[in-house]
Amino acid sequence: MDAGGSLFQVRIHGRGGQGVVTAAELLSVAAFVEGRFAQAFPSFGSERTGAPVMAFCRIDNARIRSREPIVEPDALIVQDATLVHQVDLFSGLRPGGYVLVNSAHSFEELGLCDLERITSPDRLVTVPATELALAHTGRPLPNAVLLGGFAALVGVVSIESVAVALGERFSSVVAEANVAAATEAYRLVESEREELARVAPD
Amino acid sequence: MLRQIEGSRAVAESVALCRPEVVCAYPISPQTHIIEGIGALVKAGTLEHCEFINVESEFAAMSVCIGASAAGARAYTATSSQGLLFMIEAVYNVAGLGLPVVMTLANRAIGAPINIWNDHSDAMAVRDSGWIQLFAETNQEAADLHLQAFRLAEALSMPVMVCMDGFILTHAFEAVEVATQQQVDAFLPAYEPRQVLDPLEPVSIGAMVGPEAFEEVRYLAHVKQLQALDLIPEIAAEFAESFGRRSGGLVTPYRSEDADTVVVALGSVLGTIKDAVDELRDRGERVGVLGVGSFRPFPAAAVRQALHGVTRVVVLEKALAPGAGGILATDVTMACAGVPVSVSAVIAGLGGRPITKASLTRLVEQAAAGALEPLTFLDLDRALVERELARMASRRRSGPTAENVLRDVGIVSARVV
User: What global pTM score does this model have?
Assistant: First the structure.
């Protein structure tokens, strides 16, 4: 795709029922709120709860015309860590790309150290999104929480825009709880990145 | 107001702004979100004076639309794929009776093998039914075409189908400017039927016509389609003036003025083709695009004019006429009769196979070099096909092809492309 331009492409992986498609849609709304062009679309495979699901989001400063699936993502969001060794999640990930995984474990513990050959360690972040979702919303849906983490990791949309997108989509009670969870994920990822930057050799 | 919304939502709201009086549909993927959206607008009272009728099948849905339209109501439905096939007798009847029903077709492949994903097989299955068939490139255009569809349908008293790519458009979130009620009311006058069932002035609609006049009635249906060739650009021009954006029309050329090679296509794939063409233009290739907005009536003169001076035409289509080849390509070839141009048909994107910019770029380069066969299949797994042909040749009871091929490729649910 447009390597030198402003296009940013995100692929979200998860399981049916985890709100993968909603996450891509919310991300597109957050980008739209910031005055950018955005396109979100699902890749429906087996439409069953628990089956591997993918959704895509393109963000650009120019109008987006392409309708092809995202094969070379700039960032990956993995909503379910059990997919890590089942699905070819990292296919096409651009060198220097970002990966955000929903997990209380590190990339090393998940057996994903190989990714450091593609990108720098401070772009590989895990966040316990399911736990945060349970704590704030009472439901184990990690999608909105991960968008908070994504805002901290990538910065292509702000946490404020993610909050606006959540507010537009959900009732005030649900939105507020998700915004609180997303904001906590944002802070966690922010501090995790600061930590990684400190330990990373020059 | 410009909003970041799902394509189906944009269509549901646009249809509601047209103040349909009867909406009758049966849910089928990927049309479902459109119908759910309209149903919710009726229930909430946002869409007033509209009866949303639940029925047991697509055949009933279109039959109710026939009755409603004949009784003088503005009627709307939506379907996809097998749903369209199930209502096909009524689809022909709407056109034959000259009733201005508007239908969204969320384009999807036709089984067997069953497949819920996008291609244009469903639209092509009813291309000769007498309906006007308009194709949307984006969700903005899909929304806008519905406003134009009611105008067109009611002006000519004939049905209009708005085709939008299933999932690729219906389920895509992108920015869409949904019109205001005031704008739509100014653009679309109240429905004034040409024929109506009225107990105070009884008429019968749907007479049997024998050999003495059937050809003439059919010819008149053809004349109406030809009238639409004039009316479609007129309505699109008026739309552009009223709404400040261009949508619809017969054909839309892109960078084709000085092109040697032009790709012709229908629907949302035009966006990816334009990206590929821009890349090739940057490399100095003289290539362009021609989007066909109206498939029925087929704008032969406009296509011929748009392709004037072009050496090679590549018709990329998401449908296959087995045993013949391209469908759109046949129409384009007819339109270019007597013109020294080579037309190649390329079958692509069947059953949701992604059409990538990389494949398109290779294809157009090949075409520009004059190396494209008259009929090709984009990204066809030739080895997979050969293995199944070998199985069939090796023994009589080789079994069902779809299952054999699936077993051969293994699990694919997790693959991106």
Answer: 0.96
